[in-house]
Specification:
- The chain is mainly α.
- It has one helix spanning 2-83.
Amino acid sequence: MDQAQLIGYAVTIVITLGSFIAVIQKFTQPINELKIVIQKLNDNIDTLKTDNDTQNKRLDRHENEMEDLRMRVNNIELKMKMYHKE
């Protein structure tokens, strides 16, 4: 009977340890998946920041060009007014 009890205890211990390992894996798997998703989001945010910086540089360059054109038009209008006084 002692040998049967010892085998029963051993089987119970193995089953208990197996269930603990399964529970730990159930908890760690979503955490690992969440870490992967967070890393992907961080990569996407970095890409968006880079794209935004590029767009801002382009807009700044065009803004300067537009300001130059505006100044040229103002100069031309002023000259036209001076030449065509009424």
